[in-house]
Write a structure and sequence with these properties.
- The protein is built from five helices and six strands, in the order ββαβααβαβαβ.
- The protein is of the alpha/beta class.
- Strands 2-1-3-4-5-6 form a six-stranded mixed β-sheet.
- α5 links the parallel β5 and β6.
- α1 runs parallel beside α3.
- It is globular.
């Protein structure tokens, strides 16, 4: 199997802490935060870069939607790539963003993509995408939107979701 190491505001490789600065931080605050956090993440990054199953580093989970700082995002992408130039840097975004906005963020990564919920909380038509198509085929439309934003040389990873957040509140979900 392959693994992706996450360097997101939710934690690094399923650990605690965050490398991308908290939403709402100024550019200066965000860059200072990233610099402070690098020390705690470096040992794990150094260990993971040699793992034979490492596919990529995920430096973002819906950064645009969450209001993350673009300068901090760029700094993290640069640092991860500098620390391990042999593995790609990936960012996962929420759908409902313009191609122009995706392009601003995707210029710092090697792989982009979105996590689309084609059926949101069991409701149909879907409201998770801002595109007019409200069928399951919206996944392909969102993929094409990401492909256009990334350009012809960068791949797209689409994360398909098939649950609603309210599902996690039910007993015996698993």
């Amino acid at each position: 199997g392959l693994m992706v190491v996450g360097v997101t505001r939710f934690g690094f490789a399923f650990g605690s802490g965050t490398l991308v600065a908290p939403p709402g931080a100024t550019k200066e605050q965000a860059l200072r935060y990233v610099e402070e956090q690098k020390k705690s993440f470096l040992p794990l990054l150094e260990a993971m870069k040699r793992h034979s199953a490492l596919l990529a580093y995920d430096i973002g989970d819906e950064n645009i939607w969450a209001g993350d700082n673009l300068a901090a995002f760029a700094a993290v992408a640069h640092w991860v790539r500098e620390t391990d130039p042999h593995h790609p840097v990936w960012a996962n975004q929420a759908p409902q963003q313009s191609i122009a906005l995706f392009k601003r963020w995707y210029r710092f990564v090697d792989i982009g993509g979105a996590d689309i919920y084609p059926w949101w909380n069991g409701q149909r038509p879907d409201s998770h995408s801002d595109l007019p198509n409200k069928t399951i085929a919206v996944v392909g439309d969102e993929c094409r939107k990401n492909m256009e934003a990334l350009g012809p040389r960068k791949p797209v990873f689409m994360t398909l979701q098939s649950f609603g957040w309210s599902d996690g509140q039910k007993e015996n979900v698993y």
